[in-house]
């Protein structure tokens, strides 16, 4: 089992509405079983807002993915725990 794959990304926060919305270390976060392929759980943590080149509001995010051989929801607790630790250590 691989754990804690940290990937930086930029998305519109609105793109995540309706998924497993929560708060981790005071930041908006989204827990998505099978969110990075089958047999994975991805947690996306909002980091900081910015405006893209087209003037659209965006949010920089941190993505933590835990995957293995079982159904994705199996890994969501571990992914959430790792994401909470990451969120607690983000600057600002």
From TrEMBL:
Superkingdom in the source lineage: Bacteria
Protein name: PPM-type phosphatase domain-containing protein
Source species: Nonomuraea purpurea
Lineage: Bacteria, Bacillati, Actinomycetota, Actinomycetes, Streptosporangiales
């Amino acid at each position: 089992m691989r754990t804690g794959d940290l990937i930086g990304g930029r998305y519109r926060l609105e793109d995540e509405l309706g998924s497993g919305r929560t708060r981790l270390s005071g930041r908006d976060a989204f827990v998505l079983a099978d969110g990075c392929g089958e047999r994975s759980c991805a947690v996306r943590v909002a980091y900081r807002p910015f405006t893209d080149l087209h003037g659209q509001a965006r949010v920089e995010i941190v993505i933590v993915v835990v995957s293995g051989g079982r159904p994705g929801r199996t890994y969501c607790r571990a992914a959430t725990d790792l994401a909470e630790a990451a969120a607690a250590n983000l600057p600002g």
